[in-house]
Design a protein that fits this description.
In chain A, 37% of the residues lie in helices and 29% in strands. Chain A has four helices and seven strands. In chain A, strand 1, helix 2 and strand 2 form a beta-alpha-beta unit. Chain A starts with a helix and ends with a helix. Classes of the chains: A alpha+beta, B alpha+beta. Chains A and B meet through helix 1, strand 1 and helix 3 of A and helix 13, strand 1, helix 14, strand 2 and strand 8 of B.
């Protein structure tokens, strides 16, 4: 083989190997650090893994926010309209967190199906709802519709 | 009335852009010099009309013209007038108009200051810029018209600007960031013109370099300001979140940085030619991608203010045309530009190549991490978010490699450097930085002992000192015994050293603030106090205070160090009248060595509040470093070389005429 061509081939081989290693590493790290979003009804149905970083969210149920009297422990319930999920968190809640509003919590699910949140995110302004929560609620609504007779049909 | 005027001006600007895109390009092929020259006046004209349009929108904001939907949604009669002006670019439509204005501004600047370019080249550059303007003009007028009316008038007061954005940071951050984003349109246009014309030599590189430096300078400044704004305005005390929108600005910056280095080799040695072209294409493509990510509402991100799929589809098509078209052109023409030149061993070329490989790798992994959730969502693999550990895992080692390379590169020569010389020059800086790095954490730690020894701090001190020491040693060699030589240093050399110094300062800030950050979130009532690092924070009390368009709860927190009062801090919780929004206003006592950061959480009944107390050592070095990097870019862009060449060429043209 021509020496220049061999040198080029070596370079190409090196680049291919390096790129493959980098790609494999990226895929692995993405797998390790990607957290999936689950709706409360998915969690209640047992679809979410326990002890793994996940995110969950929905509307914060009115009257469910319970602050501890002597620490920053707080617990609240989020719902997608079908099922409820209990969330516990320690720390300051975001400014836009409120009962009856959308929120997303990130953390690990414990064996009692309580989400031990390490981070709570609330929607960003008064008009905006996180797409996950919006989708979750509309999906839950559709499922509810499928299980119940259509109200319009019932009326007719 | 004034809105119609602005609308009309925008339409006229679009028509001018259309002619600017078509006529000079055609002229360059058929050899009509007057057609090519038309691009210059059209670019200036287009800028004037977009500026008029922008001024009209600003006037509508100042006059509280709530018949305009955009004004009604983003302003309020109570808003102070400087925020009314900044509200012009506070949301989607106005920020795109700003985009268009800045693009027209860059085009006009090229038209005015690049008269020395050969006519076909200049005409084509302006034509490409015109084509981009057309794309954005259409986007504005058809999907995001800021002059759309809202009739009948529903809001007498206006909905108000998002309180997060009522801040000095918002006045300056978006325009500067956009100057950077859009600025990469200029090297992109130069690259496309070079590919079309087949002219790609050292002269081309010299024409493009100052534009690249300027755009890059603005982008650096914009990112720095954005990080600073997030730090003091969001109330969490974080300065980088690996948020998709931040990533969207970091990606073009990384490629832009690679481009600056690659084009240096192209100009000086004629190597990496097609690679430089490719980087110029990618830098602008990533800027467009950033606009798409931020402005289409595809992201689940703290920045996603707007959500409208129609706009997303438009930008996606625009993106496909720009990236697809330019890559196609590159595939056809690019390889022919390559010129094989010899370089070997520890040459400066090799170090610049290393720089490029590391920067482009960093960009790639950020791109993958940012787009993966979107792709997974489209493929219905689930709703995913990628956390900071992914980004840190790759970014930190790449940056370490980069900093090591910066120190070596300063010493290398073009073509070939003797290994012996490298050892000779590098040994002392290496020893000094290693020794200091090993010892420094003993003095920086909280209790000055081995138990608080931080390996991360040692590593960042080493990297920063390694860069600083090699720079110092290089300066010492160049100055020798004759101090007057400093005056003879070129601005691009000084700019490079300043930017690299800034990088070291920034790394020091990042490393030390991460290593020694101390923060606690507490439940406090008046009279309570807490100890963070060596500081004692006393919660004195809380008051209700009215602001111009909000009512605030304002706490007083006294900070003492060894029973001596350091400062009193007044963090606020603001309730905005118009939208009923709540905002945290952190109180910060800044200094170079440490920031004291206090923010109010939520009221917990009575006078008890959740309070976040933080001590952040050296955090300010992050933004100081960013500023130095940006200044370095500016200094390099002002190098006399670029202007001298302009003068020589125009003189030559003068004699020819």
């Amino acid at each position: 083989m021509h020496p220049i061509r061999r040198q080029r081939l070596q370079w190409v081989a090196l680049i291919v190997v390096a790129a493959s290693i980098a790609a494999a590493l990226m895929a692995y790290m993405l797998g390790q650090n990607a957290s999936y979003f689950y709706a409360p009804s998915q969690i209640v149905a047992g679809e979410a893994p326990i002890g793994v970083n996940i995110r969950a969210g929905g509307m914060v149920v009115e009257g469910s926010v319970d602050r501890s009297m002597d620490s920053l422990e707080v617990s609240f319930i989020v719902t997608d309209g079908l099922e409820n999920l209990q969330v516990t968190y320690s720390g300051i809640l975001p400014d836009l967190f409120a009962e009856g509003e959308a929120a997303i919590a990130a953390g690990k699910l414990d064996s009692k199906q309580i989400l031990q949140a390490t981070q709570v995110l609330a929607k960003h302004d008064e008009n905006y709802m996180p797409p996950e929560v919006a989708d979750t609620i509309s999906e839950a609504y559709q499922r509810k519709q499928q299980h119940q007779p259509e109200p319009q049909e019932a009326l007719q | 009335m004034i809105a119609e005027f602005g609308h009309a001006a925008l339409i006229i600007a679009l028509c001018l852009a259309l002619v600017q895109a078509v006529v000079p390009m055609l002229g360059s092929f058929v050899g009509q010099r007057s057609w090519m020259r038309l691009g210059y006046s059209l670019a200036v004209g287009q800028f004037l009309f977009v500026a008029v349009s922008f001024a009209c929108l600003a006037a509508a904001f100042l006059a509280d013209d709530f018949t305009l939907k955009y004004v009604a949604q983003n302003s309020n009669t109570e808003l102070p007038s400087y925020y009314k002006i900044s509200a012009v670019w506070g949301a989607h439509e106005g920020s795109l108009l700003l985009w268009a204005l800045i693009l027209a501004g860059w085009s006009a600047a090229v038209a005015l200051f690049s008269r020395a370019l050969p006519l076909p080249m200049g005409g084509r550059v302006l034509s490409v810029l015109g084509a981009i303007s057309v794309g954005f003009g259409l986007f504005l007028l058809f999907t995001s018209n800021p002059f759309a009316r809202l009739l009948p008038v529903a809001l007498l007061q206006g909905a108000d600007l998002n309180p997060l954005l009522q801040d000095f940071g918002l006045i300056v951050h978006p325009p500067i960031l956009y100057m950077g984003y859009v600025g990469f349109a200029v090297p992109f246009a130069f690259a496309i013109a070079a590919l079309i014309g087949g002219q790609f030599d050292a002269a081309w590189a010299r024409w493009s370099r100052p534009w690249i430096n300027l755009a890059w300078m603005f982008l650096t400044l914009g990112i720095t300001l954005g990080s600073w704004w997030a730090y003091y305005e969001l109330g969490w005390g974080g300065w980088w979140f690996w948020d998709p929108v931040e990533n969207a600005s970091l990606m073009p910056w990384l490629v832009g940085t690679a481009l600056m280095h690659s084009i240096a080799a192209t100009e000086k040695r004629g190597v990496f030619r097609s690679w430089t072209l490719l980087l110029a294409i990618f830098a602008f493509s990533l800027s467009l991608l950033g606009t798409f990510l931020v402005r289409s509402g595809v992201l689940t991100s703290v920045h996603a203010f707007a959500a409208d799929p129609q706009r997303g589809v438009f930008i996606l098509i625009f993106l496909a045309i720009v990236i697809g078209g330019s890559l196609m052109l590159f595939a056809l023409r690019g390889p022919a530009m390559q010129k094989v030149l010899a370089y070997s061993g520890w040459s400066r070329e090799l170090m610049l190549l290393t720089n490029n490989v590391l920067l482009v790798s960093a960009m790639t992994m950020i791109l993958v991490g940012t787009l993966y959730p979107l792709i997974a969502d489209v493929l219905e693999l689930g709703k995913i978010s990628v956390g900071p550990p992914y980004f840190n895992f790759f970014f930190v080692p790449l940056v370490i490699g980069l900093l090591v390379a910066v120190g070596i590169a300063v010493t290398t020569r073009w073509r070939k450097t003797e290994g012996r010389l490298l050892l000779q020059k590098g040994a002392l800086p290496l020893v000094i930085s290693l020794l200091c790095a090993l010892v420094a954490p003993l003095f920086l730690g909280a209790d000055r002992s081995f138990s608080s020894y931080s390996a991360g701090a040692a590593l960042s001190v080493f990297l920063a000192l390694w860069v600083l020491a090699t720079i110092t040693s290089d300066l010492k060699d160049k100055i020798g015994t004759d101090l007057t030589r400093v005056a003879k240093f070129s601005r691009s050399y000084l700019g490079m050293q300043l930017a690299h110094t800034g990088l070291a300062v920034c790394v020091l800030g990042v490393g030390l603030s991460v290593a020694y950050d101390e923060s606690r979130e507490l439940r406090m009532q008046p009279g309570d106090s807490a100890q963070i690092a060596s500081y004692q924070f006393q919660f004195v009390g809380i008051d209700r205070i009215p602001g111009p368009n909000f009512i605030a709860h304002r706490a007083e927190v006294r900070v003492l160090q060894q029973d001596r009062l350091v400062t009193s801090l007044f963090p606020e919780k603001r309730n905005y009248n118009a939208g009923g929004q709540v905002m945290t206003e952190a109180a910060i006592d800044p200094s170079l060595a440490r920031d004291l950061y206090v923010s109010l959480g939520e009221p917990l009944g009575g006078n008890t509040w959740a309070i976040s107390l933080q001590v952040k050592p050296f955090v300010r070095c992050i933004w100081l470093g960013g500023l130095m990097i940006a200044l370095g870019g500016l200094l390099a862009a002002m190098d006399r070389r670029y202007r001298r060449q302009t003068r020589v060429v125009s003189a030559a043209k003068g004699t020819a005429l």
